[in-house]
Amino acid sequence: MLHLRVIVPEDLREDVLTVLRGEDGVANLLLYPGAALEPPGDEITADIARECANGVIRQLKALDVQHCGAITLEVLDTVLSTRAHRAEIDAEGDPADALVWDELITRTREDATLSVTFVMFLTLSCLLAAVGAVTDSTVTVVGAMVLGPEFGPLAAVSVALVRRRVDLARRAGLALLVGFPVAMAVTAVATLAGEAVGWVSLDAVRNVDEVDFIFQVGPLSFVVALLAGAAGMLSLVSSKSAALVGVFISVTTVPAAGFAVVAAILGDWDVAAESALQLAVNLVGIVVAGVLVLVLRPRRHLIPRAAQT
């Protein structure tokens, strides 16, 4: 369940209470008159089923609560309450399939923000991928996959396309269009330095056996990107963050970017082109899969809730 807190002016108190009392999935409704100091007003809290969160938030927004007050949601891991349990049963749908749009948009917006931290993580993962490429080390390449933060902006692009959020698409696009070139530029400088001191050579790129999957593009490359993107979006929708690790080590976005730079600097343009194509295939596949998951997600439970309890 979710814990809802609403800060609302006194003149909207009854309207908000009417909205919450009219929802089957709402329990433990509390009112604190005059508790809010800035902005001044009342504090109203309730425990709500995830299945009815979108409807509740939509009605509260229709009252303009988000502008004259505040709406906050908090995930509740454990709720020992018969009323809350009954409210969850009465709510239409299943908690595992419930997609709270405002929660998803907020999460992807944060992950898609261009920041120094984002660029540093992307740069470090790109450098790590480059090292893994020239040393033919699968372990190092997998480490680069896990470290890469690029899934956040890609998920944000999927959400933006489905919800038609130009602001979110612009934010995610900026993170990708700035982050990848910066990370690849730093990797290029590092490759030039390594070549100057004799640490890397053209033979190192042409004789890889363990990490050649980075630039070997085929139909299955797109299939893997689709599957990983779908799993990643499902993990965001269902708040199963542990599943994201599997997503990160399934796609070769950052390794492809790193290998493309190394190969180009050392003069192997065929491998550089194939790596760049691998990067494009993975980026497109993840976004397409994210859109499909959001569009085709279950909207109604298949088994009556009463029969499940």
From TrEMBL:
Name listed for the protein in its UniProt record: DUF389 domain-containing protein
Any single Pfam family the record assigns to this protein: DUF389
Recorded coiled-coil stretches: none
PANTHER family: AT15442P-RELATED
Keyword Transmembrane helix: yes
Taxonomic lineage: Bacteria, Bacillati, Actinomycetota, Actinomycetes, Mycobacteriales
UniProt entry tagged with the keyword Cytoplasm: no
Keyword terms of this UniProt record: Membrane, Transmembrane, Transmembrane helix
Residues spanning the membrane: 114-135, 141-162, 174-193, 213-237, 244-267, 279-296
Gene source species: Mycolicibacterium arenosum
InterPro entries per record: DUF389 (IPR005240)
